[in-house]
Amino acid sequence: MPHYTYAVPEPAHHRTRLNEPQAHHHPAGVNAHHHRRKERQRVEAPDFRFCVELGLVIRSRKRNHKTVAGLEDEISSQLTRAGIANHVPSGPTSPVSSREWSVASELCIPSRPRDHHFGMKLVSPFFRFSKRAEAWQSDLRAVFRTLNSHFELTTTHQCFTHIHITPETGFWQLDQAKGLAKSALYFERCLDALVPPYRRKSVWAKSNRNNRYFAGMSMAECFGQVDAQTTFAGLGMRMNLCSALSPTGAALGAKPGNDFVHDAYRWSFVGLTEGGGYGTVEFRQPPGSTSAAEVSAWVMLVGCLARLSCGAGGGLKPDHKPQLKSLGEWLVYEAEWCSIPHKTLLKDLLRQAVPVTPAPGTMAGMDADAITIDEDQRLRWKANDRKVALEKYRRLLKHVRAL
After folding, report:
1. Long-range contacts of range 329-334, CB-CB < 8 Å, 24 or more positions apart?
2. Residue range 162-183, pLDDT digits in tens
3. Closest CA to 287 of 155, 121, 153
4. Can you tell me the distance from the alpha carbon of 179 to that of 136, in angstroms, rounded to the nearest whole number?
5. Are 149 and 281 within 8 A, CB to CB?
6. What is the pLDDT of residues 270-282, one digit of tens each?
7. What's the pTM?
8. In terms of DSSP bridges, do strands 118-123 and 101-105 run parallel, antiparallel, or are they unpaired?
């Protein structure tokens, strides 16, 4: 998945990429047997800013909290003692910061107050992906060192690691968003192999490829529909269209025939529907993470995939079957190009892939046929939940515009 368009020569101060992985397809006009000799330098991809949402079940090691508010305060206090800037957005209008961690309860994760376990969400500041990679990795290590020292961290099927990304300019170009959308559709089965089975059929991370709009289309037809979009709202609708007859539609009381846009897909483009390219794209499929190493690996995957998808060119062939091995080579190579520290974490994530083998008579990637009563209720609760990451993005945008 290289950047196949090399129309602009690389400036002299940029590094030359050596030992480039063998591409399966070559750009038009380049002889496959002599492509290294004739190849021109790549056009640099955009850098990204990102934040992560960590959904976990947390219990204090020293205190038996009876309410989630007490646990929020203790987490915040311990992070502050460790020198980690943070806040608790305690009310619907309390401010959030794009430069601090936010500590809040999480409605989609069941709590067990009698056992002093609560579903919690920690939302990071916005970081620079490649330009300050050591900074965000160091910050993640400090946060998890503090959490694991003072709290018990466990995960359930509802726990998550969500990653929000936006170009460093603070807004998207439509072609960038389209490039990422096509990668999300094309590589869905590959990325499914990296997550536990329960995250392949989660109501909180539904399939974009098999959503209400794209289900039944060939990949070439999907690409054609993405390319035909002239607005971010149109792109978001196609990537995140949910059937009124689906379990999610039934839970939210959608009337038959009134299909709707919903954010609980593997890739959520709903944040871009406000217009003008402002907002984030969110990767929601990874399971809960209890270590900085796990989160770092997922961030590397998303950041590198976004750069490969949004740089000049593309090169995806909808009539060819995607291969995780080839994708992995390009992701690792992009991480090397960006000088991201600790690339072995990304390699380890790719190595533990388990191919998706659907049950007889079923189609890989299809969502679960039904959801639990608890999930039904939590979908309704989440519909009115506060979007902390989106609020952080809006604060970030004010800072970016002021520069």
Report:
1. 329/21, 330/1, 330/2, 330/21, 330/304, 331/300, 331/301, 331/304, 331/305, 332/304, 333/17, 333/20, 333/21, 334/45, 334/304, 334/307, 334/308
2. 999 999 999 999 999 999 999 9
3. 155
4. 26
5. no
6. 999 777 899 999 9
7. 0.89
8. antiparallel
**Parallel, antiparallel, or unpaired: how do β-strands 241-242 and 260-261 relate?**
antiparallel
- Token pair of 386, please? 């506060």
What domains does the chain contain, in order, with CATH numbers? 48-166 (3.30.70), 170-283+291-374 (no CATH)
Tokens for 310, please give them: 């949004």
Strands 151-154 and 86-87: unpaired
What letter represents residue 352's amino acid?
Answer: Q
Both tokens of 133, joined, read 């990679």
On whether the CB atoms of residues 269 and 181 are closer than 8 A, the answer is: yes
Structure tokens at 57: 């079940």
In 3D space, the residue among 239, 253, 244, 106 whose CA is nearest the CA of residue 177 turns out to be 239
Which residues, other chains included, contact 314 with Cβ-Cβ below 8 Å and sequence gap of 6+? 3, 4, 5, 179, 182
